[in-house]
């Protein structure tokens, strides 16, 4: 993979990278040698600026571009990729990480709840895969596309019907895109984390005591622990390497051994 900067491994775009798993992926890919384009909602701009500062403090030779935008808006995703290519000359890796979760029993889930979750998680990933692939095909050098599914994309969970539906959909998108794009040298995979300590997970604990919720998650896992954002970013780090060329269409569970495919 090449980019216009000779000491760079390429250009990686990571959506929803102001915090949590996306932030960790952006930092890890920068450490791995990628110039990174970090994206999030306008409301999370300050955290994005912190991520940029943190990367440049340790890696002043890296290039980091902030592009604000909402992945559920088609023009924003197109604009994100256009900005990446305009500034850095290329697109080699796209991580469609941005996602939202709403926890409500089925009977209390409104049409608006359902639509908003599917709009960010499914439409956002669809736009990301489509426009990233379009750019990578035009470049003719292959690429790596990665989406965010979940343990909730492998099995249903109470009070997570909209979220589960959205994360199951990521698996379908990932498999279909992998089949269509494989002969262009583009692999498409997704990560399916279990319980990773992030602001999203803390939000899910709601008014319950975090420690009780975390203890329950630990009890469910085979390794007796919660995951860290680094557990997910190290998987992504491998999936973007040339060595991972034969892995495509997979939604890889990373949950400490709760669910077995
Ligand atoms: N934390 C977990 O345990 C866990 C488990 C399984 C899957 N996931 C998935 O991993 C991904 C990251 O999760 P996280 O735990 O880091 O969540 P998080 O809430 O901590 O971070 C998600 C980021 O996405 C951003 N975002 C939300 N909507 C957006 C939009 N429309 N456009 C652009 N950015 C948007 C948020 O502002 C936030 O910065 C999500 O897709 C999530 O569903 C997380």
Automatic annotation (TrEMBL):
Species in which this protein is naturally found: Suillus luteus UH-Slu-Lm8-n1
Record Gene3D superfamilies: NAD(P)-binding Rossmann-like Domain (3.40.50.720)
Annotated protein name in UniProt: Diacetyl reductase [(S)-acetoin forming]
Coiled coil: 31-58
Keyword NADP belongs to the record: yes
Family listed: Belongs to the short-chain dehydrogenases/reductases (SDR) family.
Highest taxon of the lineage: Eukaryota
GO molecular function: oxidoreductase activity
Keyword NADP in record: yes
SUPFAM superfamilies in UniProt: NAD(P)-binding Rossmann-fold domains
Key words, A-Z: Coiled coil, NADP, Oxidoreductase
């Amino acid at each position: 993979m090449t980019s216009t900067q000779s000491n760079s491994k390429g250009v990686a775009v990571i959506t929803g990278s102001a915090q949590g798993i996306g932030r960790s992926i952006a930092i890890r890919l920068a450490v791995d040698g990628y110039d990174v384009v970090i994206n999030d909602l306008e409301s999370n701009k300050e955290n994005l600026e912190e991520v940029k500062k943190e990367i440049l403090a340790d890696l002043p030779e890296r290039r980091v571009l902030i592009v604000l935008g909402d992945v559920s808006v088609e023009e924003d995703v197109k604009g994100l990729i256009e900005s990446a290519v305009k500034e850095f000359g290329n697109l080699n890796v796209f991580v469609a990480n941005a996602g939202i979760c709403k926890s409500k029993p089925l009977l209390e889930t409104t049409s608006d709840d359902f639509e908003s979750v599917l709009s960010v998680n499914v439409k956002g990933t669809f736009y990301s895969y489509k426009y990233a692939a379009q750019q990578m095909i035009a470049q003719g050098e292959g690429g790596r596309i990665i989406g965010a599914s979940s343990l909730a994309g492998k099995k249903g969970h109470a009070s997570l019907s909209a979220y589960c539906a959205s994360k199951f959909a990521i698996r379908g998108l990932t498999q279909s895109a992998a089949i269509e794009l494989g002969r262009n040298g583009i692999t498409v995979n997704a990560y399916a984390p279990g319980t990773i300590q992030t602001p999203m997970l803390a939000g899910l604990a709601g008014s319950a005591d975090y420690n009780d919720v975390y203890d329950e998650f630990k009890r469910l896992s085979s390794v007796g622990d919660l995951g860290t954002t680094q557990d997910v970013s190290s998987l992504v780090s491998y999936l973007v390497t040339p060595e991972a060329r034969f892995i495509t269409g997979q939604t890889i569970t990373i949950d400490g051994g709760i669910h077995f495919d």
